[in-house]
Amino acid sequence: MKRILITGALGQIGSELTLKLRDIYGTDNVIATDIKKNDSEAAESGPFELVDVTNLNQMVETAKKYKVDTVMHLAALLSATAEAKPVFAWNLNMGGLLNGLETARELNAQFFTPSSIGAFGPSTPKDNTPQDTIMRPSTMYGVNKVAGELLADYYHQKYAVDTRGLRFPGLISYVALPGGGTTDYAVEIYYEAVKNGQYTSYIDKGTYMDMMYMPDALNAIIDLMEADSAKLIHRNSFNVTAMSFDPEEIASSIAKYVPGFEISYNVDPARQKIADSWPNSIDATAAKEEWGFKFEYDLDRMTKEMLEKLRQKL
Ligand code: SER
Fold this sequence. Notes:
single chain; Rossmann fold; UDP-galactose 4-epimerase, domain 1; seven-stranded parallel sheet; three-stranded mixed sheet; 12 helices; 16% strand; NAD(P)-bd_dom_sf; Epimerase_deHydtase
């Protein structure tokens, strides 16, 4: 990775990944793109171009203009929004990915795109979910993610594009809010803890999902992309996770730092149904063995930092 084009650079992951990559590889070597510009640091601190990922020509021309050798394709709809607008989700998630892969093929560039725990489904083993297992998701988002993993592997096998991916769990950060995901509750809860000392969860108690703090997720992306290609048995995509909890456990962790913090429930059937179709906890052994995946933040360490940073921010 020396000159990197990022799509969806102003989204949940991109807002932070762009800045981290600029620190490591140099500001001018990281080209942020998104469908709209805003005044965030990711948009203002270095090269930025408007790119609609459903427009192949625009993506390829932008990549050529900057002579990139890496494409990081982040633009996508998250699970709950995709479920509400399935046709739009298919067109954006699959059309955008295909264009990202075509751009990488044309420029002979390395390629990264995130997959998700959403790629698993109701018939997947729920606990310690293996790297290689049944993948029959019941959501449009999951269908997109499984098809996307296969497509990225296909580009590697057929065209020798160096494609790599991670199955991310819910990602938690104080910087950019996620939008339209099922795991968003685990971000909202910290904002509400700081603002109001309480939170009403749309996900029910007893619903376990994997999660990870954003700094660990960014390191995982960079470590995977820098890993020796010869050591990769898998490519698209690796299970990664740092913790698994339900709403009661994250609430208990918050209560250690916010005395009297209380959680109540008003379950959203649509998002609960999505959560129920996903694993309780996934196994990241393949990522550890093939490229040394590691993480630093467990639930309490993340909680402490999230609350400190949000108190400063809000
Ligand atoms: N955070 C994502 C979502 O909830 C999971 O990949 O949609």
